[in-house]
């Protein structure tokens, strides 16, 4: 079969797509980043997650709207290109690569940190390399295999999350306390700047709802199922994040005695003993594995579409495996970039990733807004005004606030990445290369 005749295979139902998004999002990440987020938000973890959920729900609505109209694997890159043109679309696609390319790296980094804590005799680099190799093999074989693995491991995550929260409630009752957020964990406490700083990092936990749209060309009835999956993944994940952090914050209003990057493991030991702590850490690592599978798959699809369109070298990025019909070159590239986890820390890398995501979120909201003016006059109803004008506007304002709340180093690195993209775009324009979209209709 010739290379240009190969296409991604449609094999994902709505359930499979939601499972993919939740696996990408990794509900247990609320525990994995809890200590880091606690420090950044000044203890306002639940409030930070709540604000992040609000911002993400409005933005998810814009993604759902655009996914219905343009069912392509290109996600934000596709949507912005169709609305604002090739050049702006390329820059948004380039910027979102910060999210998709480096998110697997962070996932593998967190998994490596916890595994090294469990087995100090084995170096972190060994675990990171193991993650990269195994997830790459699964993604090379195809999403059907990954879907089966995700189902089993996602059920395990849910069980452990429920058990952790139940044990925390028992701990609160045993100590004579009540399930109530501490006074600092409130919008009325005047800690808005801390809450927004925390929310800027908390949004890392939500990354996954947008990745659902990258699987559009492998989804049955994508115009219907992709928008539904985007909203379901955002809502389910947000409820888990807010509820879990609320309970943990009530049980342990002060976690300064724990190491920030592995605080959840220490809390698990405190509420459930050594055995539960071991189960928790093992499940968190497994959760990181499933998230890594989904994140690598999503990143490879974005680069594949950009390669197929010719804005990245087609001979490398636009190729599918003849047997598995997967973008094998981009899968391997994401694995290679994951090696940067050997030199990065969690706080910096999550902020760095969120810069790219926030830029893409803003432009997708703006795209949904612009689509309103393409409607016929009789289509500009109150409902259309809400979903095209009001909701995207709220989403844009909320995400802009999160963007300016990011760590200054993350903003600087993000701007450098964007500057590189501008130089590459200028190079393409100088060559006279036409940026051409190839939207796969379903």
Question: What labels would you give this structure?
Answer:
about 450 residues, mainly alpha, Amino acid/polyamine transporter I, disordered C terminus, transmembrane, membrane, transmembrane helix, AA-permease/SLC12A_dom, Amino acid permease family protein
Secondary-structure blueprint of this entry?
Layout (H helix, E strand, L loop, with lengths): L13 H12 L3 H4 L1 H8 L3 H25 L6 H9 L1 H33 L5 H18 L1 H32 L17 H15 L15 H30 L11 H46 L5 H4 L10 H10 L8 H26 L10 H23 L3 H23 L12
Helix pairs in contact: 1-8, 1-10, 1-11, 3-9, 4-9, 4-10, 4-14, 4-15, 5-6, 5-14, 6-7, 6-11, 6-14, 6-16, 7-11, 7-13, 8-10, 8-11, 9-14, 11-13, 14-15, 14-16
GO cellular component, one term: membrane
Protein name: Amino acid permease family protein
Subcellular location: Membrane
The main β sheet shows up as: none
Question: Low-confidence parts lasting 5 or more residues at pLDDT below 50?
Answer: 181-189, 437-442
* Strand percentage: under 5%
> Under the CATH scheme, which architecture would be assigned?
Up-down Bundle
CATH fold call: Amino acid/polyamine transporter I
First CA to last CA: what distance? 22 Å
- State the order of secondary-structure elements, H for helix, E for strand: HHHHHHHHHHHHHHHH
Q: At the first level of CATH, what is the class? A: Mainly Alpha
The CATH H-level homologous superfamily: Amino acid/polyamine transporter I
**Overall tally of domains:** 1
Q: Give the total of beta strands.
A: 0
Mean pLDDT: 82
Q: Using only CA atoms, what is the Rg?
A: 21 Å
Helix content: over 70%
The computed structural class is mainly alpha
The coarse overall form would be globular
Give the oligomer, counting copies of the same chain as homo and different chains as hetero: single chain
């Amino acid at each position: 079969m010739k290379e240009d005749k190969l296409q991604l295979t449609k094999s994902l139902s709505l359930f499979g797509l939601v499972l993919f998004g939740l696996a990408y999002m990794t509900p247990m990440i609320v525990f994995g980043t809890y200590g880091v987020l606690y420090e950044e938000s000044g203890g306002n973890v639940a409030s930070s997650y709540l604000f992040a959920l609000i911002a993400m729900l409005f933005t998810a609505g814009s993604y759902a709207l655009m996914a219905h109209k343009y069912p392509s694997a290109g996600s934000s890159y596709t949507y912005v290109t169709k609305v604002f043109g090739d050049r702006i679309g390329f820059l948004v696609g380039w910027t979102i690569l910060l999210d998709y390319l480096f998110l697997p790296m962070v996932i593998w980094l967190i998994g490596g940190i916890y595994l090294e804590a469990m087995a100090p005799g084995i170096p972190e680099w060994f675990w990171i390399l193991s993650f990269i190799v195994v997830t790459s093999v699964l993604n090379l074989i195809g999403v059907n295999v990954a879907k089966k693995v995700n189902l089993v491991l996602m059920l395990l995550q849910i069980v452990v999350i429920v058990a952790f929260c139940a044990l925390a409630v028992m701990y609160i009752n045993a100590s004579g306390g009540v399930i109530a957020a501490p006074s600092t964990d409130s919008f009325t406490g005047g800690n808005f700047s801390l809450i927004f700083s925390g929310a800027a990092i908390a949004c890392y936990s939500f990354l996954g709802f947008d990745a659902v749209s990258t699987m559009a060309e492998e989804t049955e009835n994508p115009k219907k199922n992709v928008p539904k999956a985007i909203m379901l993944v955002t809502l389910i994940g947000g409820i888990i994040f807010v509820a879990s952090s609320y309970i943990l914050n009530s049980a342990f209003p002060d976690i300064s005695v724990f190491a920030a990057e592995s605080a959840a493991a220490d809390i698990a030991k405190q509420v459930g003993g050594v055995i539960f702590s071991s189960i928790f850490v093992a499940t968190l690592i497994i959760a990181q594995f499933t998230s890594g599978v989904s994140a690598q798959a999503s990143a490879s699809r974005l680069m594949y579409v950009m390669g197929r369109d010719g804005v990245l070298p087609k001979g490398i990025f636009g190729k599918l495996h003849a047997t598995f019909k997967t973008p094998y070159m981009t899968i391997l590239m994401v694995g290679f970039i994951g090696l940067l986890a050997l030199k990065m820390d969690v706080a910096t890398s999550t902020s760095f990733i969120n810069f790219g995501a926030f830029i893409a979120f803003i432009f997708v909201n703006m795209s949904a807004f612009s689509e309103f003016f393409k409607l016929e006059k009789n289509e500009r109803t109150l409902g259309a005004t809400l979903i095209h004008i009001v909701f995207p506007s709220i989403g844009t304002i909320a995400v802009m606030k999160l963007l300016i709340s990011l760590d200054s180093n993350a903003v600087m690195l993000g701007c450098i990445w964007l500057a590189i993209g501008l130089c590459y775009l200028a190079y393409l324009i100088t060559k006279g290369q036409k940026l051409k979209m190839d939207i796969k209709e379903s």
